[in-house]
Amino acid sequence: MDQAIRRLSTSLAAVSALAAALLAPAAASAQAYKCRMPADIGRIARTRADAEAQRVPIAGYTLALTWAPEFCRGKERDPAHRLQCSGATGRFGFVVHGLWPEGVARSPQWCRAVPAPTSAAVRGQLCRTPSVGLIAHEWAKHGSCMARDAAGYFRVSNILSDAMRYPPIERLSRDRGLTAGALREALAKANPGRPASSFGLLTSRSGWLREIRVCLDRRFRPARCKAQQMGPRDASSLKIWRGL
Q1: What is the pLDDT of residues 205-240, one digit of tens each?
Q2: Taking the mean position of all CA atoms in its chain, how far away is CA 3?
Q3: Residue 75 burial by CB count (10 A; 0-12/13-18/19+): exposed, middle or buried?
Q4: Is a pLDDT exceeding 80 seen at residue 28?
Q5: How many CB atoms lie within 10 A of CB 164?
Q6: What is the 3-state secondary structure (H, E, C) of the chain?
Q7: 8 A C-beta contact, residue 4 and residue 148
Q8: In what order do the strands lie in the sheet with 60-67?
Q9: What is the pLDDT of residues 81-107, one digit of tens each?
């Protein structure tokens, strides 16, 4: 784990350079929401491991981006998801689920016991990940395997997520012939340098888009997704809920 943390520390400059290259003018981002920070974020609880620790070498990373309108469908009045789904703190498109280190046969997780993220770290993340509990969970489960502190973990996550550009999601959502492959190609076009094969998709059983999985190598460069990361085949029909 120490080796992974040292590698992450020395890779921050590379991540910043990669982000600068990927932030060239592209298609309009789907993140045109306004986030209003709540005055009180409540208690930030330390997350306890719910599975065995896996201290294995890091072979790559996955940046998971949840499509909030689909996640929030039916949860608009659920107190547990108030920040993301009620509309009181803003309207969200793609939000950061997490940055996950990946292994070869198994993936690192719960590498060490860590304290809860600080209030400053949580506040700095809330407009990208509008859930205090999820922020704490991602740091404890995944960040504990790749960073010395929560601030460092979220710094890398934010550089990578801010570099993402999105195709016109609303227009795509109205395409009755939309396929998983068409969305991957649209993402690749919006993000020059990222091949369509570097985008995995998570969908519901009925074919609604739930999440984009951005696959990265050990140096945070675009990488071909593994079979288990890809999700539906290119020819599979795909639907995108607009939250209306």
Answers
A1: 999 999 999 999 999 999 999 999 999 999 999 999
A2: 24
A3: middle
A4: no
A5: 23
A6: CHHHHHHHHHHHHHHHHHHHHHCCCCCCCCCCCCCCCCCCCCCCCCCCCCCCCECCCCCEEEEEEEEHHHHCCCCCCCHHHHHHHCCCCCCCCEEEEEEEEECCCCCCECCCCCCCCCHHHHHHHCCCCCCHHHHHHHHHHCHHHCCCCHHHHHHHHHHHHHCCCCCCHHHHHCCCCCEHHHHHHHHHHHCCCCCHHHEEEEECCCCEEEEEEEEEECCCCECCCCHHHHCCCCCCECECCCCC
A7: no
A8: 94-102, 60-67, 209-217, 199-203
A9: 999 999 988 899 999 999 999 999 999
Q: Which residue has the tokens 């340098």?
A: 193
For the chain, the domains span 2-22+29-230
Return the residue matching tokens 């890809």: 230
Question: Hey, what are 19's tokens?
Answer: 């982000």
Between 3.90.730.10, 3.30.1310.10, 3.40.50.720, 2.50.20.10, what CATH number should domain 2-22+29-230 receive? Answer: 3.90.730.10
Task: Check pLDDT > 90 for residue 146.
Answer: yes
CA distances from 99 to 45, 91, 127, 141, 153 (A): 20, 22, 16, 10, 8
The band of 112, judged by pLDDT with boundaries at 50, 70 and 90, is very high
Residue type, 66: T
Q: What gap in Å lies between CA 170 and CA 161, rounded to an integer?
A: 20
